[in-house]
Amino acid sequence: MNREKLFDALAGIDERYVGEALHYSPEDASGSSERIVHLKKKRLISLALAAALVLALGVAAYAVYSTYSARVPAPEESFRISWEENASGYIEWTDAKLAVTFPETAESREIEFRPGWLPDELNSLKSDEWRSRLTAEQLADKYPDMTASQPLLIESYSMSMFNNGGALLLLYYTPEDIIEEHWDEQGVDVMRFHCTQVLEANAYAPERTLEEDILLMSDPDEGWIVRLAGEVGMDTLVKVARNLEIRETGKTLRYDDFEDHYTFMDGGVG
Amino acid sequence: MEDAAIVDLYWQRSDRALSETDKKYGRYCHSIAYRICGAVEDAEECVNDTWLRAWNSMPTERPSVLGAFLGRITRNLALDRIKARNTVKRGGGQAPLALSELEDCIPGGTSPEQAVEEKELEAVIGRFVASLPKTERIVFVQRYFYLIPIDEISRELGFHPGKVKSMLFRSRKKLRAALEKEGLS
């Protein structure tokens, strides 16, 4: 087999899925001059935003550095963070609005969690099942913009899955004030903040500002991180986190236990 | 005009079928062809050929998703065109980029003698695509069927380009595993 044969065979993808991915919107076909002017204006705004973000990045990096950081790389224009050996897996440093590093941990304790409390509208997600990821995807009917943001997403990560000797979390959002705490009851370090991501207007959607809250719970000694994110509001997110039952499975995870290794952790939505 | 009404026009052998198709799907098919061919003239010819192919196919076919049906025809015609011109590796469109990315799905130790029948490969890919989570599937199909640039996909779905790249990378890894599992190498 060669890549051309593979490429040709992709033409046989089922009609349902080809139609599903059909992004063309006939109503937008006219391409009026008004839209072009608007996009030009947007480009100017983007440049201004970029300048502001460089400043925000510096402030955020300093704030995080005080407690979490082992190594926050200098935000150089040419800095590229590799992911595996794949060119398409690269991310430009300037893409990140915030970088968080955690202490180096060679081994991690595997954990599972289950929510002890969820807001009424998400209560159907609650179960006794222990899990490593909880999403609200099954409620897509109620949240039509699910591809862009989630009402609630909880994921656990192990620091030993990272191949640079420590975990690095990159966020594409611009964070507001970063609150750092230690929750004695659960014995975890917490970092939480509200953040925004401005998506430029395009032919298919007007400009959008995605907003969500992010809460990171971590136990650096045990090498695990739980990331809670969503649009349910910070107070609700804190309540979910405070009531999250977390248990160790007894398994120790080492670098070789992971098929995928990361230099960075994708902090995007979804 | 609704897709079903346009299809009806084809079945009635009405010339209006072509003008309505062009009005609704002209830009869409043109963008698919242009991404593959990388040349406006080639794209325009592909679109015209697509209308002709559609005219000859209906009847007897009655596609349920007209856009997908036309997109598939355009994609195949555009690929045929660049193959004929032997510009797959040198063209300026999205096809060479997409081809290059897909290289990591091909299991190692391949040889031309081990080439599999197209239908078998399509079946594996069909099952693989069906198994993907919805968002990942949309990203995969947009990139490798429609050849939409990553920046455009990310804008449309509201994801950062890095996230789209990550999703595609994971999908390709899964596809490679699926192909290896089926002994396709």
* Helicity range of chain A: 10-25%
**Rounded Rg of chain A:** 21 Å
Proportion of beta-strand residues of chain A: 25-35%
Largest sheet of chain A: 7 strands, antiparallel
What's the level 1 CATH class of the largest domain in chain B? Mainly Alpha
Tally of separate helices of chain B = 9
Write up what this structure looks like.
The complex is a heterodimer of chains A (270) and B (185). Chain A has helices spanning 3-9, 15-20, 33-65, 234-242, and strands spanning 80-81, 91-92, 98-101, 108-115, 133-135, 153-158, 168-171, 174-175, 179-183, 188-199, 208-219, 224-230, 244-253, 265-266. Chain A is of the alpha+beta class and 270 residues long. Chain A has one domain (30-266). In chain A, the strands form four sheets. In chain A, strands 5, 6, 8, 9, 10, 11 and 12 form a seven-stranded antiparallel beta sheet that branches. In chain A, strand 11 and strand 12 form a beta hairpin. The longest helix of chain A has 33 residues, at 33-65. Chain B has two domains: 3-84, Rna Polymerase Sigma Factor, Chain: A; 94-181, Winged helix-like DNA-binding domain superfamily/Winged helix DNA-binding domain (Arc Repressor Mutant, subunit A, Orthogonal Bundle), CATH 1.10.10.10. Helices cover 71% and strands 0% of the residues of chain B. Chain B has nine helices and no strands. Chain B has helices at 3-11, 16-37, 40-57, 66-84, 94-102, 118-131, 134-144, 150-157, 161-181. In chain B, helix 2 (16-37) crosses helix 3 and helix 8 (150-157) packs across helix 9 (161-181). The longest helix of chain B has 22 residues, at 16-37. Chain B starts with a helix and ends with a helix. The interface between A and B is large, with 56 and 73 residues.
